[in-house]
Every structure is written in structure tokens, then in C-alpha cells.
């Protein structure tokens, strides 16, 4: 036995990885998957996540139902492919990862991994130069038509709601007003030979719609999709219309390459589902007002479009179904039908009613799987499963009752069945459920109440279905009632097209200026500015282009010496919502406070004059406020871009933002809030004392720290602002200030507040929260990037921490924290600098006796910092500058 495994212990990591992998393959072939997983994991780790081992390891984990571990493997593969700059593998593994999320964890509607999406966005940034060099077709300046490009994802799925949406609209546009191009991310040979795609391709050609294909070449997949983006840009497309833009990561990559002036995401349900957060417009299949709550872009509701029924030719005999059978029909994406509950309901109905048959459209794979698992063999002939059908409406028309999938509900298919006068069973969304708002479907808007069912009351659903099965007259009555419940106006496709075309035309118009001020605006947008006349106009344009218009703009000129005054007066003349103020130069904090004092809005927003809002920023924040009336403060992370127009690769992830129970404590490590992303109630900002006026950098740091002790912060998981990186920024000209200013403010706050204020929103009886607090304590004390460490103030933090441990905690809480710190850091003490080791020992040994914290004077701490923290690349000793500043503060009466 030892001889067989000895080679796993010797040799280079690469050889040991391969040997472990080979042994894993041996066990896999013998179907001993648990043993195989052990050796695949070793190969995976020894190789430092060599992607050639990923697939076998992943499928082995899925085979033994280690679903979350399998998810982690795919995410590591995404990150590794990004790290080695293999964009083709990045796209493939990202798609693999996304598919795993919805197939195994059922979270495609609830939680995108935006960190993984950011990698694709950053990968696209590497091709910015190539995209800029594309030769674009030129049109006359007064060219009357808008150039639309439909990105037809899923053309081979004819009864997919995604494809039905595009199929209903692409052929209906007024060709006198719109030029049309179609992108089909499949090869032309596939389109010619696939039985479902071929009719669509033929119709595109007959309609004289130019089509862009995926190239039939040996190039890597990233280059193929890059070439699609280049062809779109070559044609000078005004608006790219995508179908469910986050379903396919390859298609998302094309969107990130920005091949058109505007991006529209057409979706068949809640705008948050599958909608690219950078879309300029989301067109949903329903006008249910609740859907607006989750839309990160401009929401133009799209009511139901009646299908064309002239070509229905299906007959029951085509599927071997008796004419006298009561036929239950359903259809859609197979992932929605992976529910034992659903199939057990169908089984019970068929057992109790021998005349019942079931037709599953598009369920060719998942249907037989559950038939074999749950249904007796004698019922097999009464279960009919098909692939996607070109004559989808004809197949639905054969049914007597449409039984919706659950717990994940269907979409447009329900409305199609209602239009065909079939009684339906849509699942009623639970709005009180955290994810209920994501489960909204068009059926929620249109279906009569007696045809909407609670997933928690299946007995009611079963009883209703049994009644319909037994009573043909009742079925027909409910079918007529369902069709009548669809608003009559929505049955005309032309009305929908007209509505859509108005929205598309509006995207390309310049902002319309307002001649009357908003007397009681919802938002007051503060724009402090100093010598940034070159940027100010773009910042104001980005506010005026907002899809939400109930705001005022307060521009405060902080003593600029350039032509800032001229720029802001020009804009104030254009739009009555802009109010302008000028004052002597006293810094951004002073300008913000001046704006706050003069603001009349209920909520305060802030845009630095060198930054930008994306068009939906204020609409998004307004929706988030409506969604959660108790919220007082919302923030996010901006998208950073450099002054030359190229987005930097190092884009912070939304996942890096702290959870609620760490929101205040994290400020002692770093200032994680960028002010341009936040909105806050005016009364909250006033209660926090406004902004710091006596420091040059980080004037908002103390404000956010104070506010984080007053109210829970809400994180917006959507990027809606852009922050410019340029040489003239204060942080670039005075880099040491970005260390000292927040350190000074942190020390000021630490002197005034006990440690318990920093963990106010943590549950100290929750060991997960305590463990997270310990982790944050460790990085504040030991990480070189920590504000406390960089300015030599970690000792003061340790003292406040010891006071908390000895005076404020229960014995079991104190024991858990000190033992956890000891377990994590005890073996590192001999490796740490003497000051750090001493602090940790002090914390670990904290007893139950009272610990007296004495306020610390930053001046003394600055005199004795950890030497490696002080870097002076320009040769200036900023310590002397800072001590002089502190002396001046003392002379003005400020003290600790």
C-alpha cells in the first residue's frame, strides 16, 4: 500500500499534483467518487489551482453532493483564469459558475456574484484599445433613422420567453424610422441546420434584416465575441437591445465592450433578473409597479403582446394523446421543473384521475428523469415530454389546464395560456419574503385572484385542479375569465411597439432643461467645486440626464480661481433646478456644509465636480428608499475610471463592503464609503454634525463614522456612479494627508466613543458575529494598510479594546474573543514587531478587572510611529507639517 502512494509524498509540487490527479482518475473510473475527490483536491491545491484539474474535481464534488464546495472550485477557476489573463477560460468558467448557481443552488434570481461579473467587465477593459480603433461607418449628421441592433440570444429555443419577446418586437418596427441589425451568437452553419433556429434565420433574411454571426474559426472564444462587438461598432449602432443580458456570460462580455451608444435590456420579468446593471433602459413584460423596486436602470414597463395564432397546426394525435383525455400542459426552462413537490402533485392528480395526461413542452430531459424517479411504469404512456417546439402555441392550445411550475414560477407562458382561454395555476409571490419581490411574474399582474395559488397551501391547489379536471364547464368558465382579465388594450401589439419606440427615441435625446425650480425636491444634490471648471460641466450634465427628475442641484464654488463661476452661471441659466453659491476657499468640508445648510430636499446626495452619475442613479436610490421606508443612509462603490478614458483593472468589488455588524468597526481599518455613492436623510446628516472643515483630506470620514453609529447603512448592490482618477486630485498632491487626516479623525472618534459603539449593530450572543469582530480586530491591529497601523495608533485601539473586554462583556463573550484571538495569533507573536506583539499579548491577557482608558493625543503618537509607515517620496518630512497643524489647532482652543 505504501509503495502505491509513496510517489504522492515526493517530488516537485507539479509532479505530486499530477500523481494525485492520476490516482483520482483511477478512483473516478471505479465510481469511488469520495476517494477520487480527496486526490483531486490535493492536485488542485498543489498545482495552485491549475485549471486543467478544475472540471474533474468539480464534477466529482457534484457527484457526491458537495454543492457549495463545487461552487467554490468554480469561483476559484474564474479568479485564476482572470489572474493568468486567459480571457477565453474566464468566459467559459464564468458561464459554468453562473449555471451552477441556478442549477444547483437556485439563486440565479436572487444573488449574482458581482465580483465574478466585475472580472468580465475588467477583462473587457483590456480590449478598449482595439474597440477604439474600429473604423465606424459614418452617417450624415441629420440622418433620420435610429440604428437598432437586436442581440438574439436563445434563437434555437422557440418557446423560451426570452426568444418570444424579441420575436414579437424585432419585426414590428417602423422601417422608416429604424434601421435594424440582428446579432445571433451562433455560427451560420448552426442556424441553417438546427430545426428550431432555421425558421428564425429564414425569417430574418426574408425581412431584410442584416445579421451578424459567430465566426466559424479556430480563434479562442473571447476573440470570436470580441469580433461580434467590433462588427456592431462598425455599423455605428445607436442602441443595442439584449435579451436577458446576464444569462450568458459570453454575451455579457460583448455588452461590457460597449459596442453601441446605448444599451437596452429586454426582460420578461422583474428587471433585476438577468438585467445588466449598466443598461440604460430595461423593458419588462409587465407594468406591475412592484417590479420597479428592483430595477437598476430606467424601467419602461411593457404590457403583454398577443401571439400570432394563424399558424397553429398541432393535433393531439401528433403526440399520441387521446382526444377524450383531460390534458395538463406546462412548459419552460427545465431548471424551473426540478422540484419533487411539483411532480408529486402531478402524480397524485394522475393517480386519482385516470383520464388525465400530461404534456411537458421543452422538458425532454428533466421530465423522464422525474418520471423514472417517482411515477409507476404503467403511467409512462400518459406522460409526454417534448423538446422546444416551433408550434409552441399550437401545443399549448391542446391542453385543458396549464399547471405552472413551482416553487419557481413561470412567466409569459402563463399569459399565453390565458390568452388561449386555458385555466392556469400561477404561483402567488410572497412579498414579505426577502426574495419575494424577485419572484414577480406577469401573471402576478394579470391572473384573477381565484387562479393564483400560495406555494404554502398545496392542498388548495390540488383541490382546485381536481375540481377543474372533473368539470369541463368550470374549466371553460375559468378560461374565459382568465382571458377577460388581460387588459384589452394590451392585446394590440402595435400599442406596445409604439410605446417601446418612444422610449428608445428618448434614450438618444439630450437632457431637457427645466424652467421652473422644484420647491420641495426629493433630492438635493450637493456639488462642491474648486478649480475644476474643465470637469464641472460633465458632472452637471450627468445629473441633468437622470431618469428621476425630482431634484435640485446646489453648486458651491469654494473660492475657485479658474472660470468655474462662468460655467456654473451658464448651467444655472439653462435649468431652474440648479442653485449656485460662491464662498471663500475653506475646503470641501466647508463647501459641503454650505450646500447642506441651503438644501431644501428631504434627502441629500453628493457629486464631486470631477465625477459622474450614471443616468439611473437617483431613480435607483429613490426605488431603494421606497422599497425600505425605514432606511436613512444608502451607499455603494463607484466605477473608477482614469482621466484618459480607460477603466483601471483594479476595481473594488461590492462584495468587499462590510456587513451591518462591522459597519462602524471597519472605519478603523479604512474609509470604505465614497461620498458620491451615498444618499442620506438631511436630518441624519444634521444630527451627525455635517462635515469636517478643519482637515484637507477625508473631510467625510468622521461624518460616516458618526452616522454609522446612529443608523444601519444599506448597501446598494448596483454600480450607479463613476469616480474619476486624475493627477490633480488632493490625494495625488498630498498623499500622506490620506493617511494622517483619517488617522487624526479616527483618534478623535476613538477618544470620544467606547468600543461598544463600534459594534453597536452586532449581536454579541451570536458566535458568527463575534468571530467576524475578531477577524476585523486582527486586521486593524496587524495589517499594514490599516489606518491605525499606518499612523502608529494601533496601541490606542488596543487600549480601547481591552477596556471593552474587561468592562462591557459577559465572561463567556470575553473568553470566546480572547481565546479566538489567541488561537489565531498566538503562534505569530514571535514574528511580529515588538509593538504589535505587545498589543496582542495585552488583549489576550485582558482579565475581568477594570481597565482605565485615557484619551490619546495624536501629537504624541505621531512622534513615535512605526518607522516603516513614514514614506516621503518627495523628500518632505510631513511629520513637521502635521505637528505644526496640531499646534495651530490647540491655539484655536481645540483639544482632546
Please work out how many helical segments DSSP would assign.
Answer: 36
Distance, first to last CA: 71 Å
Which secondary-structure class do the elements indicate? alpha/beta
Compute the number of strand runs: 21
Q: Helicity level, as a percent range? A: 40-55%
Radius of gyration: 31 Å
What's the overall average pLDDT, rounded? 81
The profile of the biggest β sheet is: 7 strands, parallel
Q: In what order do the strands lie side by side in the largest sheet?
A: 3-2-1-4-5-6-7
What would your notes on this structure say?
- Helices cover 43% and strands 11% of the residues.
- With 896 residues, the protein is α/β, with parallel strands linked by helices.
- Strands 3-2-1-4-5-6-7 form a 7-stranded parallel β-sheet, with helices on both faces.
- Helix 12 (221-234) crosses helix 13 (249-256), helix 22 (533-544) packs parallel to helix 23 (564-574) and helix 30 (767-782) packs across helix 33 (811-825).
- The model is unreliable at 287-301, 431-439, 865-876 and 889-896 (pLDDT under 50).
Short descriptors:
alpha/beta, seven-stranded parallel beta sheet, 43% helix, disordered C terminus, 36 helices, seven-stranded mixed beta sheet
Summarize the structure.
This protein is of the alpha/beta class.
Describe the secondary structure blueprint for this structure:
Blueprint: H1 2-6, H2 13-29, H3 33-46, H4 54-63, H5 67-83, H6 87-104, H7 114-125, H8 128-132, E1 146-151, H9 161-169, E2 178-184, H10 188-193, H11 197-206, E3 210-213, H12 221-234, E4 239-243, H13 249-256, E5 262-266, E6 281-284, E7 298-301, E8 326-331, H14 340-352, E9 356-361, H15 366-374, E10 383-385, H16 392-397, E11 401-402, H17 412-419, H18 442-446, H19 458-470, H20 472-485, H21 493-507, E12 523-529, H22 533-544, E13 551-558, H23 564-574, E14 578-583, H24 588-598, E15 603-606, E16 612-613, H25 617-627, E17 633-635, E18 639-642, E19 679-681, H26 682-687, H27 701-710, E20 714-715, E21 721-725, H28 730-733, H29 737-752, H30 767-782, H31 787-790, H32 794-807, H33 811-825, H34 834-844, H35 858-863, H36 878-891
Parallel strand pairs: 1-2, 1-4, 2-3, 4-5, 5-6, 6-7, 8-9, 8-11, 9-10, 12-13, 12-15, 13-14, 17-20, 18-21
Antiparallel strand pairs: 15-19, 16-21, 17-19
